Amino acid sequence: MNKRVSESPSMETLALQNTHVKLLAFDLLSLTQTRFPTWSSSDPVSFSRRGIHISRVEALGIVVSRDLKPDKFLKFSIDDGTGVIQCILWLNQSSSPYFSRRCPSDVRLIAQMANMFSSRVQLGVTVRVRGKLVGFRGSVQVTVDDVVVEPDPNSEILHWLDCVRLARKHY
Fold first, then answer.
1. Taking the model in full, what pTM does it have?
2. CA 153 to chain centre
3. Ranges under pLDDT 70 in the chain
């Protein structure tokens, strides 16, 4: 039996750790969540698919919900036809202690980019999101790094085909 998940991840299981893995909602929502006490306390939950650790994801779908809390966050959902993915885009860079040690001009730039991304997320728009997988209240959500509006209606089917091909060959 080929078991790839262990307490101390091998190079094989870390291969996709910081790669944006293309997944359909069905696959993303069926990821296995595992707590690794020996890992960093800031990242206590690990996600895996077929024994391969996944920390970042790329998904594409239609925005079906949008909840904006100005200067705090934008919580939205995208539907790709196989399920709904919960996403969060943080907008609190100016007030967050996480950014307090960074250069103020860098923080302003990050905040401007986040606000630009939030303005792109509108109901009914097809978007491609990339971000980090996190566990929140027992379910998986994507902490968004970037958002791209997809104007081409073929992008959704091309994303599906990529996901199926990559899942069969690599993960």
1. 0.79
2. 22
3. 1-17, 35-45
Residue 106: C-alpha distances to residues 55, 70, 89, 130 (Å): 24, 20, 18, 20
C-alpha triplet 48, 53, 54: angle, nearest 5°: 85
User: What amino acid is encoded at 29 in this protein?
Assistant: L
Number of other residues whose CB lies within 10 A of the CB of residue 158:
12
Amino acid at 109: L
Residue found under tokens 């690599």? 170
User: What's residue 43's pLDDT?
Assistant: 52
Q: What is the pLDDT of residue 37?
A: 54
Query: What does the DSSP assignment read for the chain?
Result: ------SS--HHHHTTTTSEEE--HHHHHTPEEEE-TTS-TT--EEEEETTEEE-EEEEEEEEEEEEEETTTEEEEEEE-SS-EEEEEEE--TTT-GGGTTS-HHHHHHHHHHHHHHHHH--TT-EEEEEEEEEEETTEEEEEEEEEEE---TTHHHHHHHHHHHHHHHT-
Whether 64 and 77 have beta carbons less than 8 Å apart is answered as yes
Q: Which residues contact 8 (CB under 8 A, 6 or more apart)?
A: 38
55 contact partners, CB below 8 Å, separation of at least 6? 16, 17, 18, 43, 46, 47, 132, 133
